[in-house]
Amino acid sequence: MFGNERNPSYSQIAIKVCPLLALIFSVLVTIVTLYIYEGISPPFIFISIQVYLNWYSICTISRGTMTMQNNSKQSKCNSVAINMNYTNDSSPKLKYWYCEKCFCYTYKPTQHCGACKKCFHSRDHHCFFIGGCIIQQNMGNFILICFYTSLACLYSLSVVGPYLYDNLKHIANVESGVFNIVLNFCFPVAFARFVVAGETSCLLLITLFNILFSVCVLCSIYGSWKLFNCLTGRQRYYPHIAKKQSMQEIFGNYGIYNFLFPYNGLRGSKAIDGKFELKEI
């Protein structure tokens, strides 16, 4: 699916390029926002730091999480699950899960990620823009990064928007209506004006504005949807395991402090007492 090392496929290239593009775009947005703002904005700096800290936490947890392997079993098996019968027929059966790509057995059901090239317990999906897998252990960080990314985009829109409006109003004449000026905020209109009339004024800023608006809407909706699913028990992790989670189970014992500093991931555990350690989920 992901090709081999000698001939990398498009998926492998996307896996390596997407996180880099996301990082470059975030740095570009920060520079443009602070340049137009003409100074240092403490709220925007705080929001940006939160985005990068949660980004780092997600990647740290994704790369540091290990499956509960059983290396004592040597025989290969074509089946995904192996039932180990006890001497007593009434005893429960112990299932071992074998991954043909990792060449190992685990005690719990796992799902292999071709991008991370490893298996995960309680996996949700792989985020190409972050560069790591979203699992039960870092779902709280993923919700936080969606929340802070939408806030960062909203702040940048509040800075770039008025600046762009003043420039478009100056270009389109003072008599131009508000609707016509706002219509020029749309990328298709600006691009058509560039192709037909060769006008390049504010084209890059209009493109940036449209991308920021799209990212803001998508992150706010997707992050809210994930939080709602976790709280209501609709969030399903492989293999289709779902249960209601409290705010403490999602974000850890630090509670609201995780919104100020992502302790989960930076400390390697969701709680000081180790109740929600990665290996126990």
TrEMBL record:
Q: InterPro entries of this UniProt entry?
A: Palmitoyltrfase_DHHC (IPR001594), PFA4/ZDH16/20/ERF2-like (IPR039859)
Give GO MF terms, alphabetically: protein-cysteine S-palmitoyltransferase activity
The answer to whether UniProt assigns keyword Cell inner membrane to this entry is no
Q: What is its EC number?
A: 2.3.1.225
Question: What keywords are annotated for this sequence in UniProt?
Answer: Acyltransferase, Membrane, Transferase, Transmembrane, Transmembrane helix
Q: Which reactions does this protein catalyse?
A: L-cysteinyl-[protein] + hexadecanoyl-CoA = S-hexadecanoyl-L-cysteinyl-[protein] + CoA
Q: Which PROSITE patterns match?
A: DHHC (PS50216)
Q: Which residues form the signal peptide?
A: none
Q: Can you list the GO cellular component terms from the UniProt entry?
A: endoplasmic reticulum; Golgi apparatus; membrane
> Mind telling me which residue stretches traverse the membrane in this protein?
20-37, 43-66, 142-165, 177-196, 203-225
Which Pfam families does UniProt cross-reference here? DHHC
Statement: the UniProt record of this protein carries the keyword Transmembrane? yes
Q: Name one GO biological process term.
A: protein targeting to membrane
Q: Where is the Palmitoyltransferase DHHC domain?
A: 98-212
As for subcellular location, the record says:
Membrane
How does it sit in the bilayer?
Multi-pass membrane protein
Family in the record: Belongs to the DHHC palmitoyltransferase family. PFA5 subfamily.
Q: What is known of its domains?
A: The DHHC domain is required for palmitoyltransferase activity.
| Name of this chain's protein | Palmitoyltransferase
Annotated organism of origin: Microctonus aethiopoides
